[in-house]
Amino acid sequence: MVVLVSGARSAQALGPLTLLQDINTGQSIVGIALDGNGNIRTSHNIEGTIKTHTPAGVQIGNFVFSTTPFESPDGLAVDAAGNSVVVDGNAFTIKTFTAGGALVSQFSDFTTNIWDVVVLPGGDYLVSGNNFIRRYTPGGTKIADIGSGFFSSGLTWGLDLDSFGNIYAVQPIAPSSIEKFDSSGTHLASIPVADYSKDVAVDNAGNMYVTHPGIDRVNIYGPTGTLLDAIPVYINPRGIEVDSSGKIYVVGTGGNIFIYEPSSPPPPPDADGDGVSDDQDAFPHSNTGPTVVVGVCDTGVTNQGLPNGATFNDLIGAIVAKHHGDFVSAVAKLTNDWMKAGLISGSQKGRITSCAAHGATAAPALAQRTATAAAPS
Ligand SMILES: [Ca+2]
Ligand SMILES: [Ca+2]
User: Fold this and answer.
1) Which residues contact 339 (CB under 8 A, 6 or more apart)?
2) How many domains does the chain have?
3) 7 lies in a domain?
4) Residue 251 banded pLDDT, cuts 50, 70, 90
5) CA-based diameter of the chain, in Å?
């Protein structure tokens, strides 16, 4: 038997961090993104270039972003095609380049500075600016305004997404915080962090890695803001990324790309928090209610989790029945199996099958259950 844990993810001990690489580019860096091949793209604000390095530190790309000091690359992202999407902070423009540096498109819908950009799974861009996050198509059509009014200092800097598509945005000036929104823009939480923060990266477990340039430090916070660790980073850390294996990439105006590895990498995503990772879970979004409920009938029997990530309610909900009699016998078979396995007693089996047999209340819910079970998860 598996004991279900609550849906909230707990803070993970990362263990001591090992510095794997120190790549000195010789040029001040503000933004960083990882491409689909694990290579590192960086924006160099003083030199006006975008560079690509392998994780081993070999430079494999370098193109001129701008030759005028009034235009300067800031945050950057890499889209699914491998293009560099770059914030031109001073020119209030988003510019998209091929990996080789050919300009693909650009747009400006801004009257003040913009700071960071992320590419959403569907290809749209999220852009942070003074007191806003906005969603655009790559062509520059505004889709949505997110977070207006949540940034009391009037500034929004670094952006990142977690493995569930939630949005994290840095409010940099004191009192500094990470503002968290769901993928549709609903505000979820305001998480206090140390003051004067620049960028944020989020790992699989929901831990947040925040650069604090004023104190030359990266702080690591658990999902609810517990300070887990602090890394001294020389000098002036700005952009930060974390990859799916838990490696941390930090850049700063000192010109270095530092790559750290935690001794205990974060666990893979587990959306329903039942201890079975999404890729192993028969029901990644389990019904984890406390008791077995059939239709509108609460059996009072504990809703247990099984080793494959299914719960009793998941299995009952997944029954596809032609008519009510079919449904009742499918429930009887399931509960028989559970009783044989020693998971429930005979009287608990009786309570579940009795609820299933209550045709008058179970019938309307049956249609809904069947529709849900048939829909792709
Ligand atoms: Ca799970
Ligand atoms: Ca599950």
Assistant:
1) 345, 346, 348, 349
2) 2
3) no
4) very high
5) 79
The Å distance, Cα 286 to ligand 1 centre, comes to 7
Please report the pLDDT score of residue 148 as a whole number: 76
Residue 280 Cα to ligand 1 midpoint, Å, equals: 8
Q: What does the block give as tokens for 86?
A: 């770059």
Give the per-residue pLDDT at 275: 87
Q: How far is the CA of 289 from the centre of ligand 2 (A)?
A: 12
Residue 4 Cα to ligand 2 middle (Å): 9
Query: pTM of the full predicted structure?
Result: 0.72
Distance 278 CA to ligand 2 centre (A): 8
Residue type, 35: D
Question: Could you tell me which residue, 103 or 9, shows the higher pLDDT?
Answer: 103
| Residue 3 maps to a domain | no
Ligand at shortest distance from the CA of 275: 1
Q: Which of 202, 249, 199, 239 is nearest to 222 (CA)?
A: 202
Question: How many whole angstroms from 142 Cα to the centroid of ligand 1?
Answer: 35
Three-class secondary structure of residue 215 per DSSP = helix
Looking at the structure, do residues 231 and 300 belong to the same domain, yes or no?
no
140 domain-assigned: yes
Domain limits for position 177: 17-262
Domain contains 155? yes
